[in-house]
Amino acid sequence: MNQCMRLCLFFFLMSFASFFWQFPALEQHAAYAGQQTYSIGVVPQFEQRKLHAIWKPIIEDLEKSTGLTFSLNSTLTIEAFEKAIERGEFDFVYLNPYHLVQVHDAQGYIPLVADKVPLRGILVVRKNSPIHTPAELDGKVVAFPSPNAIGATLLPKADLNQLFHASVKPLYVKTHSSVYLHVVKDLAAAGGGVEKTLQEQNEEIRSALRTIYTTRSFPSHPVAAHPRVPADIREKVRKALLSLNSSPEGREMLRKVPVEQLIPVTYSDYAVMSSWGIEKYWQPVSGD
Amino acid sequence: MAVSLRTKIFLPLLSLMALLIGYIYGYWMPQSLAGMDRQYQEATKRHLESVVEGMIPLLLGRELDTIYENFDALLNNNSDWISILLTDAPGRSLYPLGNVPGPRSTAQVQNLRTLTMQIAYLDMKLGTLTVTVDLSMHLAEWKREFHRAVLVMLVVLVGIVLSIGIVLERTVVRPVKALGTAAQSMGQARFDALHLKAGDDEVGHLVDSFNAMRENLAASYNLISQSRDKYSALYNETPVLLHSEDATGVIVEVNDFWLKTLGFERDEVLGKKATDFYAEASRQYAAEVVRPAFLLDGFCKDIPYRFVKKNGELVDVLLSATAERDENGNIARCLAVIVDVTDRRKIENRLLLSEQKNRAITTTANDAIIMMDENGYISFWNPAAESIFGYAAEEAFGSYLHAVIVPDRYIRDYEKGFQHFRETGKGSAVGKTVEMTAKRKDGTEFPVELSLSALRMEGRWHAVGFVRDITQRKQAESKILASLEEKEVLLQEVHHRVKNNMQVIASLLDLQLDFVQGRRPQEFFSDIKNRIRAMALVHERLYRSKDLSNVDFHDYISVLVQNLYRFYSVNPEKIRLQLDAEGITFGIDTAIPLGLIVNELVTNSLKYAFPANRAGEVSVMLREVGEESDGRRLYGLTVRDNGIGVPEALELKDITTMGLYLVTTLVEHQLQGSINLKRGEGTEFIIRFKEVKAQKRV
C-alpha cells in the first residue's frame, strides 16, 4: 500500500515539474502573440551615445503616436550590426541600403521609409593636398569607415579600381567623421565618404577638405521592418515616421539622423544595387 | 598716557586677530594653495589616467571622431582644461584639429599646469596625451571660499569681540566708570551719586564693596562734617579768645569771640601781628620773656597779658599757646587760647576784699566762730573763741571739737547727734540758736548760745557754729524772771483787789437798793450793779487765768449770762441759751467794753423779749471774721433772741435808754465798730468790731 502511494506521489510530482518546465516556452509564445515591444536596430554610424541621443526622441515619438512599445538597439561595430541583421534580430531596423540588399534573401526586411535625398559616395582629400584626381591615389593610404559601407567604401573602391585603376591601401576608421578627421589630420591621403555625412561635418572640417570624386547616386538609408511584424503595425510605424515631416520638432529630429524628408519606399527602389557588381568588394563578416 | 580698560582688553584681542589674519594670509593660505595645487594636479592626473584608458580602444580602432567628441566633451565639461594635445606614436598630432590654444593672459600662465601621459597598449605605444589645465578658476574659487571663511571668521571674531565689548561695557566698563564718577564725587564730598546696582560677579562684589565703603565714608564724612561744624562752632562760639599765628607771629585765623571781645572786625585783625593788640608792657614781656621760651618749648601756659580793645580799654587775659612744627622742627604755626580774666580779676579782688572783711569780722567778733570738719575736728577757730574757751588757735586746729568744748557728761549725747549730722547734715540744733553748756580750757562750765549751721563742702558735711558766751545774759535773765514773777503776783493782786473793790461797790449798791423807792430807780441800780459785776468778772477771769493779760471769752460770757439768768430768775429750760465763742480771747481793753455790751444786750432780751413767761431762745455768737490791714483782727458778735422783737419805729440812732445807748457808745467809740439791728422773728443785734490794742502805759 505504502509503495503504491509513493509511486502515485512520484508521478504527481513529475507531472507538476514538467508543467513548470514548459512554462517559459509558453510565456515566449504569448509574448510574440501579443507583440507589445518591438526592437529597433540602428546602424552604428556614430558612437553609441550620439546614436542614442539621435534616435531616442524619435522612438519616444513613435511610441506616443502609435501606442506601441519599442526598444532601441544597436551594436558597437558595423560587423556586429551586420551579423545581427543577418540573423534578423531586429523587428525594425535603420540600415545601409546595400545591407538591405545583402540580407534580403535571408531575412527579407521590408523597407518602409527613407530620405528622399539619394546618397552619393565621395572621395575627399585635404584642401591643400597635391592630389586632384582619384588616379593619383594609387598606392596611397585611403581611409574608409568600414569595409562594407556602400557609399563610402564599396562604390569608391569599385570605381577607383574599375574606372581609375588605382589600387589604394584601405584604412578602416569606423565612421565617416573619423574618415574626414584622418584626412584633415593628414593621417590618410584621402578618405571615402558620402555627401550627406560630409555636409554634417562642421565648417572647420569641411573647409579643410576637398572632394575629388563623386560616385553614382543610390537610395538613402531606409527604415525597414522584419516580415514577422504584422502588416498593420508596419503601416502604423510607416505613417508615424512620415508624420515626422509635418512638424518642426519631427523635422529637427530627422535632421540629426540625418534625413531631410522621409518618403515611403519599397524594396524595388534598392534592388537595382544588386546589378552594380560590387559584390566582390563586399567582405563577409568573419567568424560567423 | 592714560590707557582705557577697553584698550587694554581690546588691544591684545585685536593684536591676536591681526596675528591670526597675518598667519592665515602669510603662511596658511600659501601652504593651502600649494596643497590645493598638488591635490588638483593629482586629481587631474587620475582623471587623465581614466581618459587614457578610454583612449586605448579608440586609438586602436582609429575612431578619431569619437576621440574628438570625447575630448571636446572633456574641454566643454572641464572649463579649467585649457587644451588637450593628442599625438600618435610617431608624434603626429591627432587632436586638436587646429593649433593648441595658448594662455589667455599673463596671469593665467602662472596658474597653468601641463600634464603629459603616455598611451600604450601592452608594449605598443599608441600616443601621448598632453593636457594643460588652468588652476586660476579653482584657486580663485578656493580663494573666494577662503576669503568667505576668513570673513565669516572675522565676523565671528568681531562678533565675539563686540560681545565681549558689550559684556565688558555693561558689566565692567560702565560699573567701573560709574565707580570712577562716584569716587570723583566722593572726592568732592558728594555721596549722593546714583546708587550703583551690583551684579552677582566680581565687579558686583567690587560695587558692593564700593557702596559699603561709600556708605561708611558718607557716615564718616557726616561725622567729620558734624565734628567740623561743631569744631567751627566751638572755635567761633567758645567763650575764649582763639587765634592762630604763622611763624612770623601774624594772625591767620581768629574766632568770633576774639573779635567780639576786643571789638575788631576780622579784616582789621587778619594779617596783623598778634603783639599789635598787646598793651605795651605785655608786648615787652612777650618779646623778652615769653617768646624765647616759646620758641624753645613749643608751648606756653597761662601767660598774663593785657590786650587793648579797639575802644582803648584794657583786657586782662591769660594766654596759652601751642606750636605746630614743620618737618625741620621749625615752628610753622601756633594756636593761642586766650582767656579773658578781667572779670575774674575783679572777682578775685572782690574775693580778696571779702576775705579781708571776713577775716576782720571773725577776728574782731565777740562771738566765737568755730568750724568743724566732717570728722569732728576743728578747722577754724577765731580769736573770740580763743578768749572764750581759753585755747589758742594753734591748739584748737585739728583738735576734736567735742572733747575741747563739751562737758564730759554730754559728750556721749553729742556723739550720737554728730553721727547723724555727718551723714545727713541735719540735727536737732542745726539751723537753730540753742543754749547749752560749754567747757573752758580750765574745765569750768559756762552757758553759751550756739547758732549752728551745716555747710556741705566737697560732698561732706561741715558745721559752722557761732558761740556766744551768755553767762552775763543768763544772770540778767534770772533777775528779770524773778522780777516778772513778782510783777505777776502783783498784777493778780491788783486784779483781785479791783474785783473785790467792784464787788464791794456792787454790795454797796445792793444795800443802797433797800433805801431806793420805786421800781425804776431799783432797775437803774440793778443795771449798774450788773454792769459793775460784768467788769468785775473780767478782772476775776484775768487773775484766775495763767495769762494775766487775756480773758477766755467763752468762759467769760458763759459765767456772765448765767449770772444774768440767776439775777433775773430766768428758767434756762424755758429760755434756752445758745453760746458760741470757743477759742476767742481778748485783752482787758476789749474784754471790758465787750462784756458790758453782751451784758446789756442779754439783759435787754431777758427783760423784754419774753413777756408773760414766754419761752424762747437767746443766742450769743462771737466769731473772728477777718483781719485789718494793720494786722488787727475783725470780729463779729451776734446777740439774737426769738422773742417779741423791738418796735418797728425804734431806730438805734434814736435810742434814749441807757442800756442801748451804752451799747452803741461802746461799739462805736471803744471798739471802733458798727452795730446793726435786724428785725424778724425776734431781735438780732449784729456788731462788727476790731480788737482794741493795748496801749503802753506809764
Written description of the protein model:
The complex is a heterodimer of chains A (288) and B (698). Helices cover 44% and strands 20% of the residues of chain A. Chain A is α/β, with parallel strands linked by helices and 288 residues long. In chain A, helix 5 (150-162) links the parallel strand 6 and strand 7 (169-172). Chain A starts with a helix and ends in a 17-residue tail after the last helix. The model of chain A is unreliable at 1-34 (pLDDT under 50). Chain B has 698 residues and is α+β, with helices and mostly antiparallel strands. Chain B has helices spanning 5-60, 64-77, 106-110, 136-187, 202-237, 256-262, 266-269, 280-297, 342-364, 383-389, 393-396, 401-405, 408-424, 471-513, 519-544, 553-567, 588-608, 658-670; strands at residues 81-88, 93-95, 112-121, 124-134, 241-246, 251-254, 299-308, 314-325, 331-340, 368-372, 378-381, 432-439, 445-457, 460-469, 550-552, 575-580, 585-587, 616-627, 633-641, 674-680, 682-690. In chain B, the strands form five sheets. A five-stranded antiparallel β-sheet of chain B has the order 6-5-9-8-7, sandwiched between helices. The longest helix of chain B is centred in the N-terminal third of the chain and has 56 residues, at 5-60. Chain B is elongated, with a radius of gyration of 70 Å. Chain B starts with a helix and ends in an 8-residue tail after the last strand. The chains are: A alpha/beta (288), B alpha+beta (698). The A-B interface holds A 46-47, 50, 143, 171-178, 180-182, 184-187, 204-205, 208 and B 61-66, 68-69, 88, 92-94, 97-98.
